[in-house]
Amino acid sequence: MAAAEISANRTRTILSLLGITIGIFCVVSVFTVFDSMERSIKSSIESLGSNVVYIQKWPWLFVEDYPWWRYVNRPETKLEELKKLQERSQTADAMAFLTGTNRTVKSLRHSLNNITVLAVTYDYFKLRNIEIAEGRYFSPLETNNGRNVVILGNTIAQKLFDGEPAVGQQVKIYGLKTEVIGVLKKEGNNMGESHDEQVIVPLLFAANFLNIDRDGSIAVSPKEGISKQELIDELTGIMRSIRKLSPGMEDNFSINEISTISTQFEQFFRIMAFIGWIIGGFSLLVGGFGIANIMFVSVKERTSIIGIQKALGAKSYFILLQFLFEAVFLSLLGGILGLLIIFIFTLISTYAFQFQLVLTLANIVLGITVSIVIGLIAGIVPSYLAARMDPVEAMRSTF
Question: What's the helix, strand, coil split of the chain in %, to 5?
C-alpha cells in the first residue's frame, strides 16, 4: 500500500526525498572520507613503526607555557650516544641513528635538485617497513666503513634512469660518485615520510658532506615481550646517565612516540565528525519536515478512505502502522538513494583520482538506521492523527 501510494505521486515523492537524500549523503560521506583517511593514516603509522620511539632534541608535541629557549639550548643527539645506548640497554631490540639533508642527485642523463638524502646506520631496515624492489640493502661492512653506495626511492630511480634498471649504475651526491645497490618498492605518501622521493646512504658516507651530529635522532624498537613504556623508562634512565643529569634536573632530550601523532589525528577526526553531524543534521531536519508535510497532506487526501477502513473494522493501530510505514519507507528510499550516490562517489575517487574511499558496512548501517529514525519521527504525528479519526466524521469529508 505504501509503495502504491508513493508511486502514484512520483513528483511529490521525488521532491520529498531530496532532503533526506542530501542529509544522508552529507553525514555518511563525511564518515566515509574520515574512515578512509584514518585507515590510510593508521597504515602509514604502521609503516613508520608503531612500536618505535625516537630520541631527539625537539619534542613532537610542545608543552604550553614551556620556555622555547630551553628546547633551543638542548644538546644535539649524537652518534656516540647510540653506541652507549646499545651497550647498556637490555630492553631494546634494534637501534639506528638517522639524519638527513637536501642535496642535488645526478645521473648521466638527469639532475634532480633538493632531494632528501637520508643517512642511516645498519639497523634502520629493522625499524622501518622498507621493501627492496631491485638489488639489496646495505651490508654491515658497507655501513661501518661508510662505503659510497646508495639505495634509491622508487620515484627517484624512475626519474634518474627513465624506467631502466638502476642497480649497478652510478649517481653523484654532492659531487661524490656512488653506486646504486638497490631500489625501493613504491610505497606512496606515508604522512610526509615516503621513501619514494628519497635516497638512503650509509651514515658514515654522509659524513663526507654533512654534519651527522646535527638534527639527528635515534630510533629504537623494544624486544618481544617488552612494552613500549618499559623501553621508554629504560632509555630515559640511560640517556640521563649518559648526559650526567642529576636527579633534580629536567630531561634535556625528548623521547617521541608515533602514538603522539595518531592521538592528534583522532582528536581532529572527532571534531570534524561533530561538524559533519551538524552539517548533515540541518539537511536531515529539512528532510524530516518535508516528509512530515507530505504525510499530513497524504492523511488529508485519504481521510474518507480512513473512514471507510474504520467502518469496515480496521483497528486504530492498523491505520497508524499504514501511514507510519509509508513515512519510514519514503525516508528509507531517500537514504538508500543517498548511499548509492556515495558509492558512485567512492568509485570515482578511487579510480579517477587515485584516492581510495571505502563505503564500509558500518556506514551503510548508519545511513539506513538514520533514515528509519527520521521516518519514524516525521511520520508519528500524522499517523497518530489518522489513527484517532472518527469514522463517521472521516467519511463525511467526501461531501
Answer: 55, 15, 30
